[in-house]
Each structure stands twice: as C-alpha cells, then as structure tokens.
Amino acid sequence: MIIDCHAHLVPPSLLDAVRSEAKNFPSVRLIEEGGSLGFAFSGGKPTRPVAKLLTDIAGRIKWMDEQGIERQVVGGWLDMFGNDLPAEEGMRWSRLANEHLAAAAAAEPRFIPLATVPLQDGARAAEVLRAAHGKGFCGAMIGTQPKGVGGVLDDPALDPFWRAADELGSALFVHPVFESGDDRVHDYGMANALGRITDTLIAVTRIIYSGHILRYRNAKIIGGIGGAALPYVVGRLRRNFSLDPKLGDPDASLRALYYDTLVHDPKVLRFLIDQVGADRIMLGSDMPFPIGDLAPKKIVELAGCSAAESASINGGLAQRLFGIR
User: Fold this and answer.
1) What is the pLDDT of residues 269-293, one digit of tens each?
2) pLDDT digits (tens, 9 = 90+) for 143-163
3) Residue 323 phi, psi (nearest 5)
4) d(CA 36, CA 51)
5) How far apart are the C-alpha atoms of 4 and 64, rounded to whole Å?
6) Is 105 left (phi over 0), alpha (psi -120 to 50) or beta?
7) What is the pTM of this model?
8) If DSSP codes are grouped into helix, strand and coil, which group holds residue 276?
9) Residue 124 CB-half CA count within 13 A
10) For residues 227 and 55, what is the distance between their CA atoms, to the nearest angstrom?
11) What is the pLDDT of residue 80?
C-alpha cells in the first residue's frame, strides 16, 4: 500500500459551515473576494485565500491515482487553524473543522484525517484530541507556534495536551505555520524555501531539549520537511547537550522522531536514511502546495533505496503508525 503521510485538505462543506455559522465565531472575520474565502482571526492579519486545490476532492483523487498513491493522511490548512482565537471560541472552531474532516474521510475512505486542536489552551486541546480519537482520528496536525503567531510547544500550559497525546498514542504531525517568526524571509520566496525550515527546526529543537520527545514518546511525533535540518545539525545539538546534560538528549530524540521525505533532493534523502533509518521515514507530498513534492515516489527511487527501505518508506511505516487497514 502506497501512503502519502503529509497532505492538507479543506472540505468544501467546512467552508459552507463557516459561512452559515459565522455568528457563532465573533472573533473570525470572513474575507470574500472574487469567489475566494480568507479569514482574519481576533483582528489579526488576514490569511491567504483558501486555494481551490485545497478543496478539490475530485482533483485530489485523480492526482493520487496518477501517482499510484492509495491512501493519503490529511490535516487541515494551517492558516485557518485559528490558534489565535479566544480559547473557548477556538475550541468550537477546532471541533467544527474536525467534524467536516471526519465527514470527508467517511465519504472518501482513501483519506486518513488528522484532527485540529486549540493549542492556545492546553486543557481544551487535550479535550478536543480525546474527542477526536473517540471519533476515529488517529492524531492531530499541530502548528509550530501554538498561539497562531508566537508561542512555543514546550510551554508548560500545554502539558495537558502532551499528556493526552502520550496516553492516546496519538500521531502528532508538527507543521510550520505561515509566519516563520523572522521578517528576513519575506523576500525572494524565502518564506517557503527557508522560513518553513527554520520555524520547524526551532520548534522541534525546543521539544527535544525540553525533554518532551522522550517524556511523551508514546505519542508518535513527526517532524515534517524531512526533519527540517535536524539530522544535519545534530552534531551541534549534541555538543550543546554535552555542555548542559540536563537538556533532553538530541541523539535519542532524533531516533524517537518520525520524518517525511519532503527534502527535494535524493542525496539528502539518502543522508536522512543513513542518519535515522528508513524505518523512521514516510512518503510525503505536502499536497496541494507548489513547494511540495507532487511526484513523491520518485525521490525514493532516486535515493537508491533497497526493496525493504522502499517498502517501509512508501507505506509500511505509515500503515502501522496511522493504523491504516
């Protein structure tokens, strides 16, 4: 079974529900221009419009068929996670998103949905995660900045969420948010080329050094974008750990993490395999975004993988990790 572990989906029914239930979300402003829909949360900067490809389920299935992909793990779109909403409103927003992701997966069983949780409040995020598991979700996609813009994943206020994920054995896909936290990347297309990397690298390094990766290792934590340079800088992380052994162990943490293949270079994928093992890596496309890998099986072929490595990366690990039958 060929499984794409990294994709995004906004069910059309969710957009319809957002419009019809707008009165229930007073901190959400809908921005409709030329048939497109964007959002502004809590008076903040407007999001990008929802791209048509995020909602085009028929087009998605056609692409999967063309690529020989049988199942796809889908999270929502990070821009509309609403983690900067007031906590109770954010909880309702996450539940609405999860209701429609679950319905889309029920209608099209080739989709494996990852829940959205209100990370702005650890206790509420834990409650939504538990409810999502009760409805068949296997975990959640979470942003690197739990306040929408800003915040850190090792914030003690998020401990109830991390404990719930550990108890449930949740798959947690750590994904960069739109704002990387560094204004220097807003030229030359660098937000996509580099900002997503630095954002993820900082977020995951924090939960390595805080001890979260090893403390909550029953949660299956996935570092997208091939680990976002973590395998390349592990020597430096190790050196820093030797200077302060109270920190979480980076080598043990890298061995406990999971990764996708979204590195765009077969030599880099081969390096990642050599660093962490093929049994920690899964096929990932970032569908439908242009910065993604829209022919994801090719990099595995070009990386010189053995038959066993290819079988694990292309679907074997994802099948076990996400409980896919």
Assistant:
1) 999 999 999 999 999 999 999 999 9
2) 999 999 999 999 999 999 999
3) 65, 40
4) 8
5) 9
6) alpha
7) 0.97
8) helix
9) 19
10) 27
11) 96
